[in-house]
């Protein structure tokens, strides 16, 4: 099964993606994670991407598009994938659709998690990242996934790790606003990419406002 998942930063897209990956045993390809791994390892790709990411801008298409299209050609993608964070603009959507057609790959589902901009922003600022596994959801503003607080310290609610941190670009309001400007842009931004697929495939829309379990129940029911 090949799936695209869309949602503004802060909509719980990564959390839902991890649950879908577990349920359907598909490969979860997250562009943001690939970039951050490369930044940590100080690779060429990481060095090129860092400045854009810190400012909340998109890494240029010349870098991002081949990176993802090459990734999709690897043999581990044959048993299905969930692409998260790509496409992020109309040009990437067109490049992806074109590459899938050429590779004879089918897109089975396109998911859109819908969340108003102000709620998404608050959620981003509350997000805490577990160093053990970045798919362990923790957020100080969402009751269902609040980290465990003990003696003034916060611990990961999934594995108990005390290595809970924040992403630099999650605490910078200007960077958040820039990322949301890109997402909510219906002309050439991410919503334009969503609309591109809306007109070509059966889009599954999910309200991102309820808790993690409610959103995932609604999504998983429509995916199977
Ligand atoms: P994310 O973890 O999805 O929020 O991505 C973090 C950052 O990585 C974004 O703010 C962009 O700077 C960069 N990025 C992720 N996906 C893409 C993409 N498809 N195109 C360009 N830049 C991206």
Which word captures the global form?
globular
CATH topology of one domain: Rossmann fold
Which homologous superfamily in CATH is the superfamily of one domain? P-loop containing nucleotide triphosphate hydrolases
Bound molecules: adenosine monophosphate
Oligomer: single chain
What is the name of the CATH architecture of one domain? 3-Layer(aba) Sandwich
CATH class of one domain: Alpha Beta
Strand content: 15-25%
Strand order of the largest sheet: 2-3-1-4-10
For the CA atoms, what is the radius of gyration? 17 Å
Distance between the termini: 10 Å
| DSSP helix fraction | 40-55%
Total E-strand runs: 10
- Uncertain segments are none
Main sheet specs: 5 strands, parallel
Q: Output the structural class.
A: alpha/beta
Kindly state the mean pLDDT as a whole number?
94
